[in-house]
Amino acid sequence: MTTAPLSLARRPRRQARGALATSFLLTPGGLLLALLALLPLVALLIIGFTDGAGSLTLANFAEMIASPVYLSLLGRTLLIAFCVTVVSIALGWPAAWALARYTGPRAKPLILGFVIIPYITSQLLLIYGFVSLVQAGGPIMSLLSAMGLADPQASIMYTPAVNILMLIQESIPTAILVMYSASDQISGSVLEASRTLGASKGFVFTRVIWPLSSAMIGVNFALTFVQTVGAFAEPAILGGPTGQMLGNTISTQLQSGVHQQFAVAMSLVLLITSLAIVGGVTGLLSWSRSAVSGVARAGRPRPERVAAQTLLPEEALTTEGVLR
């Protein structure tokens, strides 16, 4: 008769201890986030909206917006980053799907290890290794000349194309790892049941695979786009005069030590436009998932919905959650 009151009396103490433990665990990470992320951002905002005398001004942003050169660099940077991100996801998703679905348990860790190698390799080493491939007399140019597609002494160095190829090469490992996680979480029994009930491959992709993967596609897009839009080493080494990006201008301006407020203003504009694009793409992916779910609810019973009713409870819950 006394156990229930005692348990009710102990519950507030347990909740207080849990809250204290949560605060204790979150404090170190929160302090590091504030010191290493929030404070530098606040400093950038202050520098970007001040002049050399320390007075508040919007002249730095007005100078960039009024300059067609800087606006062209901004547009080129955003376009290159968008294309690199889309191509990387398009190339990395099939590889990740094959790795998750058709690779044996022994070969899978080995392949993932090869995918991770670029992350443990110096960026400059990757860039100059790529230079040795595309320079005159390198393996790629020798192969193209043997096929009659290029001059033996020609090279694609210092062109926008080689800059984009390098950025794609750096972004594909991220795409594979992120989409591998998304592909591995999709239940194979759901796909098999949908195909058994007569669903075509296109139907399975649009109504099952795409809704279950759209969230990770958004994460992949954000990671790759933000990583690419701030690139400056690759364009500086490989891009040549016509392949420069806004990151090169910002880096040069900061290193020169002249008019640093203008360089910070350019970086803030690049940050805001990048966040706007990432937010727009993420919202579009979320809308596409909701639209697919709405079509599935409005139409007749779909094969994957019928399949969800024949699966185990946890698998059915996953599929029904997507359809709703």
UniProtKB/TrEMBL annotation:
InterPro entries the record matches: MetI-like (IPR000515), MetI-like_sf (IPR035906)
Annotated localization: Cell membrane
Domain ABC transmembrane type-1: 74-281
Presence of the UniProt keyword Membrane in the record: yes
Membrane in keyword set: yes
Membrane topology term: Multi-pass membrane protein
Spans traversing the lipid bilayer: 20-49, 69-99, 111-136, 203-226, 262-287
Family note: Belongs to the binding-protein-dependent transport system permease family. CysTW subfamily.
Source taxon at top rank: Bacteria
UniProt keyword annotations, A-Z: Cell membrane, Membrane, Transmembrane, Transmembrane helix, Transport
Pfam family of the protein (one): BPD_transp_1
Protein name, UniProt field: ABC transporter permease
